[in-house]
Amino acid sequence: MHHNIVELKHISKSWGSVKALTTVNLDVRKGEILTLLGPSGCGKSTLMRITAGFETPTSGTVVIAGQDVTRMPPEKRPVNMVFQRYALFPHLDVFDNVAFGLRLKGLPKAEINAQVSAMLKLVQLESLSGRWINEISGGESQRVALARALVNRPSVLLLDEPLAALDLKIRHIMLEELKRIHTETGTTFIYVTHDQDEAMILSDRVVLMNKGAIEQIGTPDEMYGAPKTLFCAKFFGETNILGGHVKSADARGAVLNLPIGEIEAPVGGLRSGSDVHVSLRPEAASLRESRAGKPNGPDAVPGIVEDVVFIGSRVVYKVRHASGTVLKCQEPRTAAGIRFGVGSHVSLQYDPAAIVVLSG
Description:
Elements: E1 4-15, E2 18-29, E3 33-37, H1 44-52, E4 59-64, E5 67-68, E6 79-82, H2 94-104, H3 109-122, H4 138-150, E7 156-160, H5 168-185, E8 188-193, H6 196-202, E9 205-210, E10 213-218, H7 220-225, H8 230-235, E11 240-249, E12 254-258, E13 261-265, E14 275-280, E15 285-289, E16 300-311, E17 314-320, E18 326-332, E19 345-350, E20 356-358
Parallel strand pairs: 3-8, 3-9, 6-7, 7-8
Antiparallel strand pairs: 1-2, 1-4, 4-5, 9-10, 11-12, 11-14, 12-13, 14-20, 15-19, 16-17, 16-19, 17-18
């Protein structure tokens, strides 16, 4: 039995006739990094602000550490929030920014010094403790904001797009730092982002949101490898989406009629005659040379290479089938380099188990 530190029960939020959230139920496990992911306007930041207490839900209950906090103001909740625009005090140095919350609580000076020093060490800023805020970089400012939040020992740390203002290289360093800090503190992190790479790198579990509701919850691996809906399959990385219908089905599997021909999918529970979408990841397909468009074997699609994109360690081929459907195939770059040029006749092979059947 997992211990849930946050329980959001039947949460909805409307502004007039605009529904920001429609009945969200979510449990957050103690000590995990949970990411709320989705496009702008999907409701992820609203859900975060309701958890923090900056917004009140139209209906529903917020429980943190076993206590109903739905009507409790933010400063009374056992949570701290780090925003994208971390409002640090420019008239205080790094040390005093971090000490601010502890001084408000009236802790003894020696205890404040010990706690702040330990926190600055954790975020690797002890050498900058006397610097003014305008003398440090964006990445360093973000570390100060983290230290200031964590020094209050919140049960839950809420992070709302905290790295959005930083450039890519610093973002990746900060993601590694966040993972390290999480490991060392054991604090529960709830993280909001619209960037699926951030979610994949950081999270124990990802909550994908769409139009004010939860689309799917799972580990990064589950979200990528076993998406349940079209929205989820498209959101995580590149994929080939094919529309078709179920020709025949039983409990063990189904025959699907797709533009590239009939395929057998080892998926039970489909209805014969129903419309269906399938996802096939580019890396689950491989290319072989083909003589004049003849497929090699049953799970193969004949086609012509239309485009070749070289991305460092990967080569992506676009293969056009006679139906006009274009499939992407991604292979690791080998010493042989790019194996097929534009115009080559190829046979695209795939493992039927890699076909994911989607709803919606």
